[in-house]
């Protein structure tokens, strides 16, 4: 993969790389290495979060990489126990200190936590931080249609992105349609669905035809849906494999066949109740 991979337009006039890698469950003492190796492999999008406990390593990797900082798009997130205006501002500033950067490209609300009733207030503070230039773009993660409608209705500001669990067994058609109608980028977390579709007939058939792995077929499916996608790997070989998805394509028939794998099956929490 080269740095000239596709970029997706954001509704605030910025752009972001379509493919990146996530730092969830990457051990803190390996994070700097993974960031360096990922950037060396051509990735230009890194997805972090305060709750991952590895923002210091993220910052170390950014300082040690061999490309300019402005060529790498960095995301981090405000965790659930830091919602509310004052807490959100403090959490963002703490993340910036840990990463040792003056700004991040994208700051997300990690979960809506509807029972807390604070996500609108948290969103308003992210808007203020963006207006102050402390963060460049702002978005959300794990928001449902109702949550998106509420923050947009109460603030008039549309998130640039919603990062959601999305894989062949949880295809999120309703959310993707809402995103498309409002200019919100869909970003897929756990895009491989913990491998639960690797043995599915449509995936195996596409892998055989293209000479690619099941993982590459599924990542290509995300790309052709128009999603941003952030698989995770701590191995250089895994990073390289996940990146090799721009030199082949799935047919319309293969995309349709993978669509039949929808099962409403989550690997992670339900945003309606998780807090």
UniProtKB/TrEMBL annotation:
Residues 19-261 form the NADP-dependent oxidoreductase domain. InterPro entries: AKR, Aldo/ket_reductase_CS, NAD(P)_OxRdtase_dom_sf, NADP_OxRdtase_dom. Keywords: NADP, Oxidoreductase. The keyword Metal-binding does not apply. SUPFAM superfamilies: NAD(P)-linked oxidoreductase. Belongs to the aldo/keto reductase family. This is Aldo/keto reductase. It comes from Paragemmobacter amnigenus.
